[in-house]
Amino acid sequence: MKYVLIFYGVQFLVLVFVGIVSWKFYDKRMHNRKKAPEGYLKTDEVFIDPTTNKTLRVYYNRENGARIHVEE
User: Fold this and answer.
1) What is the DSSP letter of 35?
2) Keywords for this entry (predicted)?
3) For residue 29, what pLDDT band results from cuts at 50, 70 and 90?
4) For the chain, what are the domain ranges?
5) Which end of the chain is more exposed for a tag (fewer CB within 10 A), N or C?
C-alpha cells in the first residue's frame, strides 16, 4: 500500500510541475508585445489595461482578421 501512495504521489508532483512550466513558458495568450509583427496595421484603438495600467494599441491583420495588442 505504501508503494502505491508513493507511485501516485510522484505522478501528481510531476503533473503539477509540467502544468506550472507549461503555463509559465508556453501560454502566451496574455503576452503583450513591444512591437507589432509584419503585416499588422496600426488602428486608432487605444486602451489602458485595467490589470497592469499599461497603455495598449490594437493592431489588425487584413489577411486573416487577427488582432493583437501592443504596449505603447
Assistant:
1) S
2) Membrane, Transmembrane, Transmembrane helix
3) low
4) 1-71
5) N
